[in-house]
Write a structure and sequence with these properties.
Number of strands: 14
Mean pLDDT: 93
GO molecular function: hydrolase activity
Pfam families: Lactamase_B
Radius of gyration: 19 Å
Number of domains: 1
Helix content: 25-40%
CATH class: Alpha Beta
Structural class: alpha/beta
Low-confidence stretches: 239-243, 245-253
CATH topology: Metallo-beta-lactamase, Chain A
Protein name: Zn-dependent hydrolase
Oligomer: single chain
Distance between the termini: 66 Å
CATH architecture: 4-Layer Sandwich
Domain Metallo-beta-lactamase: 10-209
Keywords: Hydrolase
């Protein structure tokens, strides 16, 4: 097993290479498809059909955006958490899907990335549903771990032989510090997920935003201290800003 780290549009791409197949640890962004194609065909000198499985850890644009297109292109399978329904459900889901794409574009602009089409379907059609502790289909050396909190369906991917775990957006490294992601819809689940990863005692943790790291006990404790105790979401942030603006307006009058 060889783990390749590629620079994606707004996140790191992790492609796992085996002699007879390839595993993509997350569904990436739609803008990442050319990067993957170039690396697989030109660098690895392998056909795109060697891509066997894509895991979608959650439904945000940089984690699910390329999955459907890559399946059409390669014939690969898609696996995700065994959670009922769709993350982007109903009218509120439509608005949140659009908001998440706008946030992704904002991040890309801050990173001085060129404009790219990152549109993707809000509805994920999977081939496999993964429960906590399930081995990945065709990749028994990897196990799915339920690590919800960021959304209701986040999973991490634990590689048993190397004692490494890909946690997607469970934690983010910014300016040398480990912080919770935004949003955190389920704060209690989020804290439980952090404790779950800490108890695993991995040799290293692989981040979608921050690379492969080895946090100290103090850094884990700092992360736990920073973990929100109430939901930290788009709508809650907007409501708080509106509330502050109204209070300021009233005080001025």
């Amino acid at each position: 097993m060889k783990l390749h780290k590629l620079d994606g549009y707004i996140q790191s791409i992790y492609l796992v290479e085996y002699k007879d197949k390839l595993l993509l640890l997350d569904g990436c962004s739609r803008a990442d498809i050319p990067v993957l194609k170039h690396f697989i065909i030109r660098t690895l000198q392998r056909p795109m059909s060697d891509l066997n499985l894509i895991i979608v850890t959650h439904m945000h644009p940089d984690h699910a955006g390329a999955a459907h297109k890559l399946r059409t292109l390669t014939g690969c399978k898609i696996a995700a958490a065994n959670v009922p329904g769709q993350w982007y459900n109903g009218l509120e889901g439509v608005l949140m899907h659009l908001t998440d794409m706008l946030l992704a574009k904002w991040v890309a602009k801050r990173m001085k990335k060129p404009r790219r089409n990152i549109w993707y379907s809000s509805k994920l059609k999977t081939d496999y549903k993964l429960n906590d502790g399930d081995a990945l289909p065709n990749f028994p050396d990897w196990v799915a771990l339920a690590t919800q909190g960021h959304t209701d369906r986040d999973i991490s991917l634990y590689h048993i032989p190397s004692n490494r775990v890909y946690v997607a957006d469970l934690m983010v490294k910014v300016k040398g510090n480990y912080i919770p992601p935004f949003p955190v819809f389920y704060p209690n689940r989020y804290r439980n997920s952090l404790h779950k990863i800490i108890a695993l005692k991995p040799d290293s943790i692989i981040l979608a935003h921050g690379g492969e790291v080895q946090p100290s006990e103090q850094e884990f404790q700092h992360l736990l201290n920073c973990a929100p105790k109430v939901p930290k979401t788009h709508w809650r942030s907007v409501k708080m800003k509106v509330s502050r603006a109204l209070k300021l307006n009233c005080s001025v009058q």
